[in-house]
């Protein structure tokens, strides 16, 4: 099976792996938005007691927080260094209902179809060569009636200005080169791929940031960062 991954993208995040759990590092925005996305996912899917898959888990920030909500979580990624950091942090934090695997989404879908109540794939689609393939695999991994969540960046001039010029060059919230505009995904494109994978839309939210107050919040504005909830038909 051809692995749906970009070696340069993997190397980029592997080089930063040791800083994943530093809330003042390049991953500070991730730590700040995590409570928002966690609460939104939990409000819809109800994480307690659920079997959850976190696709593209990186250092495990979302995976570990979902496990703390009493979910049984599996995090997968293709970055050996990031997974090493994730495993170590979970061990130090004594989070037991959590495991990590170095495996591609498509490979796990072939191995464990219809195995998870909830599948999350956050801030990953814009970093892979074939996002539609990841979406299809996520749909296969979900149980009938299960929830599948995605988050990514819209592709329009405002998103370019805010997510690349603003975040990477002006405010320096992220390292330069973190994102490539051509890989951003319009909501209509994401919706089409979800429909093709057999997923039904169940809600969406936009993520906004005020550089003066340094505060994030969820809104109805999906013009830059946005989250999508879908369900697999029962």
Automatic annotation (TrEMBL):
<keyword id="KW-0808">Transferase</keyword>
<feature type="binding site">
    <location>
        <position position="56"/>
    </location>
    <ligand>
        <name>S-adenosyl-L-methionine</name>
    </ligand>
</feature>
<dbReference type="InterPro" id="IPR010233">
    <property type="entry name" value="UbiG_MeTrfase"/>
</dbReference>
<comment type="function">
    <text>O-methyltransferase that catalyzes the 2 O-methylation steps in the ubiquinone biosynthetic pathway.</text>
</comment>
<dbReference type="GO" id="GO:0032259">
    <property type="term" value="P:methylation"/>
</dbReference>
<comment type="pathway">
    <text>Cofactor biosynthesis; ubiquinone biosynthesis.</text>
</comment>
<keyword id="KW-0830">Ubiquinone</keyword>
<feature type="binding site">
    <location>
        <position position="37"/>
    </location>
    <ligand>
        <name>S-adenosyl-L-methionine</name>
    </ligand>
</feature>
<dbReference type="GO" id="GO:0061542">
    <property type="term" value="F:3-demethylubiquinol 3-O-methyltransferase activity"/>
</dbReference>
<dbReference type="Pfam" id="PF13489">
    <property type="entry name" value="Methyltransf_23"/>
</dbReference>
<feature type="binding site">
    <location>
        <position position="77"/>
    </location>
    <ligand>
        <name>S-adenosyl-L-methionine</name>
    </ligand>
</feature>
<feature type="binding site">
    <location>
        <position position="122"/>
    </location>
    <ligand>
        <name>S-adenosyl-L-methionine</name>
    </ligand>
</feature>
<keyword id="KW-0489">Methyltransferase</keyword>
<protein>
    <recommendedName>
        <fullName>Ubiquinone biosynthesis O-methyltransferase</fullName>
        <ecNumber>2.1.1.222</ecNumber>
        <ecNumber>2.1.1.64</ecNumber>
    </recommendedName>
</protein>
<dbReference type="GO" id="GO:0102208">
    <property type="term" value="F:2-polyprenyl-6-hydroxyphenol methylase activity"/>
</dbReference>
<keyword id="KW-0831">Ubiquinone biosynthesis</keyword>
<dbReference type="GO" id="GO:0010420">
    <property type="term" value="F:polyprenyldihydroxybenzoate methyltransferase activity"/>
</dbReference>
<comment type="similarity">
    <text>Belongs to the methyltransferase superfamily. UbiG/COQ3 family.</text>
</comment>
<dbReference type="InterPro" id="IPR029063">
    <property type="entry name" value="SAM-dependent_MTases_sf"/>
</dbReference>
<keyword id="KW-0949">S-adenosyl-L-methionine</keyword>
């Amino acid at each position: 099976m051809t692995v749906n991954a970009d070696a340069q993208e993997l190397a980029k995040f592997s080089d930063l792996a040791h800083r994943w759990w530093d809330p003042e590092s390049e991953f500070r925005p991730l730590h700040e938005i995590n409570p928002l996305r966690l609460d939104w996912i939990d409000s819809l899917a109800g994480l307690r007691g659920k079997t959850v898959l976190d696709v593209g888990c990186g250092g495990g920030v979302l995976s570990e927080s979902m496990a703390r909500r009493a979910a049984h979580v599996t995090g997968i990624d293709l970055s050996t260094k990031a997974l090493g950091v994730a495993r170590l942090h979970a061990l130090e934090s004594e989070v037991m209902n959590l495991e990590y695997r170095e495996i591609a989404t498509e490979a796990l879908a072939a191995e464990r179809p219809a195995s998870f109540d909830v599948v999350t794939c956050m801030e990953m689609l814009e970093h892979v060569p074939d996002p539609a393939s990841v979406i299809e695999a996520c749909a296969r991994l979900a149980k009938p009636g299960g929830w599948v969540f995605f988050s990514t960046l819209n592709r329009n001039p405002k998103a370019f200005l805010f997510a690349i010029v603003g975040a990477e060059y002006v405010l320096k919230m992220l390292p330069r080169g973190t994102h490539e505009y051509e890989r951003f995904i319009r909501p209509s494109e994401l919706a089409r791929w979800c429909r093709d994978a057999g997923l039904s839309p169940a809600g969406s939210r936009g993520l906004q940031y005020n550089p003066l107050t340094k505060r994030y919040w969820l809104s109805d504005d999906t013009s830059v960062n946005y989250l999508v909830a879908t369900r697999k038909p029962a």
